[in-house]
Specification:
270 residues
Length: 270
């Protein structure tokens, strides 16, 4: 039996990936299990070494380690090198290779909505690995302009320097009208309980031309991004669809088995 896992901090225990992958693995007749591992930041290096020692067949990596895990890997795929963040580790003997299937997952999720970002402006919240991935794929899909908003303006500037766009301090968005057709939340915050400040900012956003709001998170009892979209009559998608689409790519990297995205979505909505 093979073992696959997801690495994160305490958020590993809130991820839907273990349920989703375990269900798909079972239905596909693959003799494997998928488990969550909580790793404290000082122990990330030993945890990656543990993948080799324990013969873990493959791993997902999520916040807050999508960028900081890279120095502990042996090699990166071309896409992961460009993006500078990974979410999937493939083990080949003792060699660990990092991939980014999040970018393709977001692209596939947009296509599932029949939504084309070409020549449209986008506003991305966040300055971590998820935001880097979003900025990359929006530019790949030929968005006209990508604004990256965050509290850490230096990190926002670094992202737009690499992937084009404009950096803006999220606090500066108050009272500023942006001609954005799509808003994507790539922070880890979606509930007022997690950040009252960001919830108030989302409520006051002035984006009269917005057509779609995507929150890469999921599972919140209250989601102020969804509330904002509902209030303005804008289409909304949470992170479960992108999760399912990237999982298809991840499973194929691990096993060579191609499973339709709907199988992963069915596992999330039994």
């Amino acid at each position: 039996m093979k073992v696959y896992c997801i690495l994160s901090d305490e958020r590993a225990f809130h991820s839907r990936s273990p349920v989703m992958f375990s269900t798909v693995l079972r239905r596909q007749g693959i003799n494997a299990v998928y488990v969550p591992f909580m790793v404290n930041p000082p122990n990330l290096g030993p945890a990656i070494e543990g993948l080799r020692v324990l013969n873990i067949a493959g791993a997902n990596v999520t916040a807050p380690y999508k960028e900081t895990v890279i120095p502990h890997l042996d090699v990166l795929s071309e896409g992961a090198q460009i993006i500078g963040a990974i979410n999937t580790i493939v083990r080949d003997g003792t060699r660990l290779k990092g991939y980014n299937t999040n970018a393709i997952g977001i692209m596939d999720a947009l296509r599932s909505l029949d939504y084309n970002v070409e020549d449209k402006s986008a506003l991305v919240f966040g300055t971590g690995g998820a935001a880097r991935t979003v900025a990359f794929i929006l530019n790949w899909l030929r968005a006209r302009e990508v604004w990256v908003a965050g509290r850490n303006i230096d990190r926002a500037r670094l992202i737009v320097k690499e992937f084009n766009g404009r950096a803006i301090d999220s606090a500066a968005l108050n009272g500023l009208q942006l001609p954005c057709a799509i808003i994507i939340n790539a922070t880890s915050v979606s509930s007022p309980d997690e950040s009252e400040d960001l919830a108030m900012l989302a409520e006051k956003l002035d984006t009269p031309f917005c057509e779609l709001v995507i929150d890469l998170n999921y599972g919140r009892r209250r989601n102020f991004w969804q509330e904002m979209a509902d209030r303005k009559g804008i289409r909304f998608m949470d992170g479960l669809n992108p999760l399912a689409f990237q999982a298809c790519r991840t499973l194929e990297l691990w096993t060579g088995v191609k499973v339709p995205p709907q199988e992963f979505l069915n596992a999330l909505h039994p």
